[in-house]
Design a protein that fits this description.
By secondary structure, the protein is α+β, with helices and mostly antiparallel strands. It has helices at about 10-15, 30-35, 85-90, 110-120, 135-145, 155-165, 175-185, 190-200, 205, 210, 215-225, 230-240, 245-250, 255-270, 280-290, 295-310, 315-325, 330-335, 340-360, and strands at about 1-5, 25, 40, 50, 55-60, 60-65, 75-80, 100, 105, 120, 150. The termini are far apart.
Length: about 375
């Protein structure tokens, strides 16, 4: 029984990057041996175990073969006779197919270190084309390491194009696709993720709406990443004005959906904020429910600013000031005056409008 550190932990150490998650592969062991040593199984049918103290994942060395469509259409075989090299060959990229023993020696049967030095994302074997999820994964790695000069190898891009044309991408579940997309959007250069999907023909299949008018969207997305914006803002920058279909296709979380839709509907108000009449300004604040959800309005402002791409965005400070003025209107005096229900709502709206008129006059 031998235990090796594998995958991203080895890759990132060799790159001089911070290592956050560590995965391990166990060669020459059985499920019964893992149980006897106190390892806890992750699932009934998958040979992955959690360390009894650290909670890190330890997987039995395994092989796999294609058995159906999609990223889940595989049959795994784990046994003590599966070698480390056989386990590593099923991985996606050579830079992810390296292992390290407990003495720090690197096992590199597929020349991952050479590809690290050449800054290439290259597939390990032709079996790469059996898993459509790898199209998204490679594009995500391209976004992560673009700043280090990494590119997708031409032969790998060709396989990704073949996967895109095969119809296999349609077999991906919305949840798994969104997991890769959301992770990619939070990388240092998420616009590279979209560009790589475009280059291999996957973007037109997965997100045809984004494929048209892409430059403006990629610019806004790049700005959002540069300013360390959250996922909600990055998604809104990418899909601004595209409607519900793309959100529903990937079962996008509600907060991302809501902001994207609001940005699409009101970005013009954001850019033209300085010229908005107090009445329109109040409608905008009400629409965003700035009294109970101030963070969503702030994210709207940032999404507009990222799309504008200007050094300064005076509209942002103006909108924040307007929101503060509206929020400063006290409800208590109106309640003490005996107003309730619809009368209270109308009186509060009138007072907020007065506050915005005064704010605009001073601005």
């Amino acid at each position: 029984m031998q235990i090796f550190k594998v995958g991203g932990a080895v890759r990132d150490r060799l790159l001089g990057q911070a290592v956050t998650d560590i995965d391990w592969v166990v060669v020459g062991a059985t499920t019964e041996q893992m149980h006897a040593l106190g390892y806890r199984p992750v699932g009934a049918d998958f040979p992955v175990f959690l360390h009894p103290r650290t909670g890190e994942e330890y997987a039995l060395a395994r092989t796999e073969r294609k058995s159906g469509r999609g990223y889940g259409g595989f049959v795994f075989h784990a046994s003590p006779d599966v070698t480390l090299e056989e386990d590593l060959v099923r991985r996606d990229l050579t830079i992810n197919a390296m292992a390290e023993d407990d003495h720090g020696n690197v096992v590199d049967p597929y020349h991952g270190q050479a590809d690290l030095e050449a800054r290439l994302l290259r597939h390990v074997s032709p079996a790469f084309a059996e898993d459509p999820l790898r199209v998204l994964r490679v594009a995500r790695f391209a976004a992560r390491y673009a700043g280090l000069g990494f590119k997708v190898a031409s032969e790998t891009l060709l396989l990704m194009r073949q996967l895109s044309e095969s119809g296999e991408l349609q077999a991906l579940t919305p949840e798994r696709s969104w997991k890769e997309i959301s992770r990619a959007l939070m990388e240092e250069q998420p616009q590279v993720f979209i560009q790589v999907l475009h280059d291999c023909g996957a973007l037109e299949i997965l997100m045809p709406e984004v494929a048209s008018g892409g430059e403006r969207r990629l610019f806004a997305l790049q700005q959002a990443a540069r300013h360390n914006q959250p996922l909600t803002v990055r998604w809104a920058c990418l899909v601004q004005g595209l409607g519900k279909a793309i959100n529903e296709r990937f079962k996008v979380p509600r907060d991302c959906q809501e902001l994207a839709m609001l940005v699409g509907q009101h970005q013009g108000d954001g850019h033209g904020a300085l010229e908005l009449a107090p009445e329109r300004l109040l409608e905008l604040l009400q629409r965003f429910d700035v009294y109970r959800r101030p963070q969503r309005f702030e994210e709207f402002i940032m999404a507009c600013a990222m799309a504008a791409g200007e050094q300064g965005y005076p509209q942002g400070d103006y909108l924040r000031g307007a929101a503060d003025a509206a929020r400063a209107v006290a409800v208590k005096p109106l309640v003490e005056a005996g107003l309730t229900g619809q009368q209270l709502g109308e009186a509060l709206k009138a007072e907020r409008l007065k506050a915005l008129q005064a704010f605009k006059a001073k601005a």
